[in-house]
Amino acid sequence: MEPVNVHDYEALAREAMHPAAWAYISAGSGEETTLEENRAAFERMKLLPRVLRGVGSVDLRTTILGTEVGTPILVAPMGVHGLAHSEGECATARAAGSAGSLMAVSTASSRSLEEISVSATGPLWFQLYVYRSRPFAERLVRRAERAGYRAIVLTVDSPRWGRKERFLRVEQTLPSELDYSSLDEEGLSEEEFVPATLTWEDVTWLRSLTDLPVVLKGILHPEDAALAVEHGAAGIVVSNHGGRQLDGVPASIEALSGVVEAAGGRAEIYLDGGIRRGTDALKALALGARAVFVGRPVLWGLASGGEAGARHILKLLSDELESAMALAGQPGVTEIDPDLVVWER
């Protein structure tokens, strides 16, 4: 029987993946309180629908930094898709394009950014980690430009890696053939393969390297959102890194409104973290997100069904969003009522 929702795919993916690979993509940091809160916060939000609006059809189309997409359900940057499927990010990129979506490709991908670009049937962004070797970051930006990526997504919440205890318990059992990233081809030493300690000057530096729009991923504090705009960020991804960095921070959806208000319409705002239903996406859109990024569920689809599975995940979420919008009296994603969401008391 074909899976009917994202949660069905989670069970299938767990069966299909090596236990250590499953632990890697599933784990959060520390006690995993933030990982759990990303979901729990959505459950505390309720939808207050409008009626008698004559909404017979719903328009999911929107633009993301000027790029037209058929759905506001986008693919988040995640490393080593090869842990889920042998075709890795190439299969995911085809799935995203056929679903009318946009995919952000991780620096730590299991396929080169050029291979992924050749496979892609839709728009791509490139997510950048800056390591101690700054020339390496510059090379990646140039490669992304040449390969046709449309934005650079700088991850700003990772001055060091979060301690993922669930993965640490099984890390040594990960088969060597699965433990591969395109970064291996760069031949970075262990000393170089350490996150750089970034400042706001580095945002200015990155903008000086490229004419592509720069998006900052990993912002939760309203003051950081205001600084991001002041430093020329074209977009902000409200994200706690899927609960994989600092444990004990708010759910991304809880931080969204403050970031939207602080940005004041001067940058596009996106949400990452905890999206498992179309109604989750609708709540985020109502609170001011232009689109949402989906992470682990895409890998669940990829692990259990390859390209077709990843595509089905995006279709399920988009279909659920379309249905929820019609039932809530919302005709299009660019005109959702801001008072559609109420917090449970």
Description of the molecule:
With 345 residues, the chain is an alpha/beta fold. The protein has one domain: Aldolase class I (TIM Barrel, Alpha-Beta Barrel). It is 40% helix and 13% strand. It has helices at 6-16, 19-26, 33-43, 88-98, 113-119, 134-146, 165-168, 200-209, 222-230, 252-263, 278-286, 296-327, and strands at residues 45-47, 62-64, 67-69, 73-75, 103-105, 124-128, 152-155, 214-219, 235-238, 268-272, 291-294, 341-343.
CATH H-level homologous superfamily name:
Aldolase class I
Strand coverage percent:
5-15%
Strand order of the largest sheet: 4-11-10-9-8-7-6-5
Number of helices: 12
Structural class: alpha/beta
Distance between the termini: 39 Å
Number of domains: 1
Question: What is the level 1 CATH name?
Answer: Alpha Beta
The fold-level CATH name is TIM Barrel
Shape: globular
Computed CA radius of gyration, to the nearest angstrom: 19 Å
> Helicity level, as a percent range?
25-40%
Averaging pLDDT over every residue, what do you get? 95
**Architecture (CATH level 2) name:** Alpha-Beta Barrel
Which runs of at least 5 residues are low in confidence (pLDDT < 50)?
none
How are helices and strands ordered from N to C?
HHHEEEEHEHEHEHHEHEHEHEHE
Sketch the major β-sheet: 8 strands, parallel
Count of DSSP strands: 12
